[in-house]
Amino acid sequence: MDYTAMDQYWIWLSGVEDIGPKRFYQLLTLYEDPRAVWDALGESGAPREMQFLGRAALKSLREARSEAYFYRLFDRLERSGIRAVTRLSEDYPGALTTIYDPPPTLYVRGECPLNGEKMFAVVGSRRSTRDGQRAAREIAEGLARADVTVVSGMARGIDSYAHEGAMAGRGRTVAVLGCGVDVCYPPENDELMGRILDSGGAVVSEYVPGTPPLAGHFPQRNRIISGLSKGTLLVEGAKKSGAMITVNCALDQGRDVFAVPGSIYSPLSATPNRMIVDGAIPVISPWEILEYYRWASRPETSDANPHQKVALDPEALKIVEPLREQELSFEELTQITGFSAAKLNSHLTMLELRGIIMKVPGGMYRAYL
């Protein structure tokens, strides 16, 4: 990718370790542009007016002020197929320019546009329940079918299921990372990251390629998840979870906040339930979000229970009815129905072919109708 000279110095300065957005913008209040910062360092080191940066940041800045560092950075971008999108670029998301400490530079893998009008965040707990996982996947799938780009953090639990749902809906999804976009975290999501990119999505970070997933990075990245999005949905999450940081960022940014209600006895539903009491918009399907933004209209139906339109024999109903309530494994269905493994397998195959049930990640089944 070709960068202007100004882009190159901008990318250089914003990527220096220990600088970060706050110090970056402070330097731009003192100097005309990043090239002037490079020139000011010169042969004699940092001038007195840079002392506010602190010892560690000054040391990093002096070490990065070399042609070897400069060209090594851009060579890595080129070899890894990573785009650096600066605030000077037309491709920089306009939504991020309105947030506190917008990232000076975004590193991007994938071709998914980040400037879309229909972008929505789905987040939640890493320690999610089966119901929470199903809600994240089904809501994200419904949003994707309405051409909404689903944004999340590719963490374990709810985030991963949100990405899965978006791809199941043949839509695009954006994963915002707390490490370099060439680093997969958590490691077991390597295959998921590949499918996000292969399906037309994108992986985004404000951290230079090669940056490890340090704990302090994740609260920072959460402001980007909410900042890119019109609204943020919390599926499940404890009071002090990382997902709640994203929700609080959304509130600070003036974004809409939504929550999936749950059992009043479930610890992971206590926070979403409290959010709803305090004014968050309750969500039990994609339609609450799609209709709120007028992105799609709910199809009219004269039947209050659309499941009744599918004719099922008594044995099939013994399988389908429990799957309408929750996802179940093959072993659990064997116990519930009393069928032999061969008989159950035959029924499951026929129900899958009819589009009534589907097999989902983890070897679980759920009713689709």
List keywords for this structure.
369 residues, alpha/beta, Rossmann fold, Arc Repressor Mutant, subunit A, 3 domains, nine-stranded mixed beta sheet, three-stranded antiparallel beta sheet, 15 helices, 12 strands, 44% helix, 13% strand
Which class do the helix and strand fractions yield?
Answer: alpha/beta
Strand sequence of the main sheet, in spatial order?
Answer: 1-2-6-5-4-3-7-8-9
Given as residue ranges, the uncertain stretches (5+ residues, pLDDT < 50) are 302-308
**Rg of Cα set:** 24 Å
Q: Report helical residue fraction.
A: 40-55%
What would the average pLDDT be, to the nearest integer? 91
Strand percent estimate: 5-15%
Classified by CATH, the class of the largest domain is: Alpha Beta
The DSSP helix count reads: 15
Number of E-state strands: 12
Overall spatial form: elongated
What's the CATH topology label of the largest domain? Rossmann fold
Order of helices and strands: HHHHHEEEHEHEHEHEHEHEHHEHHEE
Largest sheet: 9 strands, mixed
Ends apart, CA distance between termini: 47 Å
Q: Mind telling me which CATH architecture of the largest domain this is?
A: 3-Layer(aba) Sandwich
Give the domain tally: 3
